[in-house]
Amino acid sequence: MDAAAHDQIHELDALVVGAGFGGIYMLYKLRNELGLDAVAIDKAGGVGGTWYWNKYPGALSDSEGFVYQYSFDRDLYEQTPWKTKFVTQPEILEYLNGVVDRYSLREHIQLETGMTDAEFDEPSGTWTVRTDRGVTYRCRFLVTGLGLLSATNMPSFPGIETFEGRLVHTGAWPEDLDLTGKRVGVIGNGSTGNQVITASAPIAAHLTSFQRTPQYSVPAGNRELTPEQIQHHRDNFDAIWEQVHNSSTAMGFVESTVETFSLDEAEREAVYEKAWNEGGGFRFMFETFGDIATDEDANEEAAKFIRRKIAEVVKDPETARKLTPTDLYARRPLCDSGYYETFNRPNVTLVNVKENPIAKVTEKGIVTEDGTLHELDVLVCATGFDAVDGNYVRVDIRGRGGETLKEHWSEGPTSYLGMTTAGFPNMFMILGPNGPFTNLPPSIETQVEWIGDAVRHVSATDAGWIDVKPDTEAEWTQTCTDIANQTLFSKAAGWIFGANIPGKKRTVLFYLGGLKEYRSTLAAESSAGYPSYTTNDDVLEPAI
Q1: Which family does it belong to (predicted)?
Q2: Residue 298: enclosing H or E segment and its boundaries?
Q3: Confidence of residue 153 (pLDDT cuts 50, 70, 90)
């Protein structure tokens, strides 16, 4: 950018940071519906958020396509051309670009522009946001759609900087990288590692999976939908989204209320087998029985079924042993397109790094503790993200009294409703900490619509800003903790509690009470006139 652009100050009503699912809809809401002067910025070279960065082989939604899209415009929904049960990364990216153009948003999105710091000025009630492009924005409302999974977590191994091949993270996949004929190493085997390994093994000369924790995974069952199924989704638009909004996981199916041990062993086996053949990780965990996520004995029954399937699929007993989890089935429920079958291939090797740790990285590849050099051309880090709050604490965001967000969250990230945090007025987070753990587009729409109503309300009053009360934030954080402790998820060392980041304090990062209850809480707050918030003059009349 030329020198004249430096130190420019753009006065706005609202600034949106991020241009993924959340940022795009927020910009639409602010500009096209509320008529505000709003701009979105994103450090990426294109819109799409997660789906812009995650271009790795095999990248696929694990929410079914008919509910992994916007619902705010029925015409848009009926024109979406997706024809498969799950949707690939290129299709989702094309869809989001189409949405941006459909609603004439592109000219209001500044790409390759990252937020470096943001500061709230109490007397004027405005945010000043500086960017790495020399442009400064001053706005009344700041909305952050930084993404749950976008602050990449790179591992630190001795000698990793000496590796002479390509070192990549799945969350920043280079467009020019082709794994065909390469010796590929993949560290990590969560949802992303699972997809990368399955998609890359058939084209790689050799693939080595460096597995940290064996995972429970069920088939995705991805397939082309029939014209009748597609038409059914379009014809039943209202009923589908009504069900989604009144469900727990927002995945487009009715969650089971049947208890595992209310059926005998043969009946249970039939339920699991049907779900296995249908496909879908969330369906397997939540559509089969209602107590898999809350009762250890019920959880173990489901886990035993998956373990038996691994033993049936994987031909080599030692490889099967390494791939078989023994802990709770209580992480993000995975699904795959032939993950376990991949380890039957002659060009695939599995290294269990808990039994045989990575000792160092050399210019030629990875050396494990047993002294073996695994020669590699490409080392893929499918090592996840510093989830939820990672992107926030990496930026200098200062609220009232100059307090930084990092200081405010020193004991773990907190919020009210996953959208506001005390001391940071008129700053709204899309998918901030302790928001709902669901299929994301319905939660994103729920939050964006609530934020839009709050912005409209504040704009119509004499109040300059609203700020959530600290006690309310503490109560919501405790509510999220209490609900999480009623589930088995809190007993598993998964990323949804920050357990994948060395040194990061384990904390609750999500509201696990379901979308229906979450939407009810939001509606009660707004209809009562935002009683959980204070204003600069401590006056905020009830909404009409």
Answers
A1: Belongs to the FAD-binding monooxygenase family.
A2: helix 296-313
A3: low
Rounded CA separation 251/243 (Å): 9
**Distances, alpha carbon 233 to alpha carbons 71, 204, 287, 321, 415, in Å:** 12, 38, 19, 41, 35
Amino acid occupying residue 275: A
| Residue 141 structure tokens | 């409302």
Q: What share of the chain is helix, strand, coil (3-state, %, to 5)?
A: 35, 20, 45
Q: What is the mean pLDDT of the chain?
A: 91
Q: Where are the alpha helices (DSSP H) in 460-502?
A: 470-485
- What is the C-alpha separation between 274 and 292, in angstroms, rounded? 16
> What is the percent of the chain where pLDDT is above 90?
82
Q: How far is CA 458 from CA 27, 450, 451, 467, 541, in A?
A: 18, 12, 11, 11, 10
Q: DSSP assignment, residue 65?
A: G
For the cut 60, the answer to whether the pLDDT of residue 74 exceeds it is yes
Residue type, 384: G
Output the CA–CA distances (angstroms, integers) from residue 226 to 82, 223, 280, in the order listed.
11, 9, 18
Rounded to whole angstroms, how far apart are CA atoms 63 and 252? 9
CA distance 399 to 408: 9
Say how many Å lie between the first and final Cα of the chain, rounded. Answer: 46
SS3 229: helix
Q: Which helix (H) or strand (E) holds 195?
A: helix 191-200
- Please, which pLDDT band fits residue 500 given cuts at 50, 70 and 90? very low
pTM score of the predicted model = 0.93
Burial class (CB in 10 A: 0-12, 13-18, 19+), 225: middle
* Residue 442 pLDDT greater than 60, yes or no: yes
- pLDDT, one tens digit per residue, over 294-349 is 999 999 999 999 999 999 999 999 999 999 999 999 988 999 999 999 999 999 99
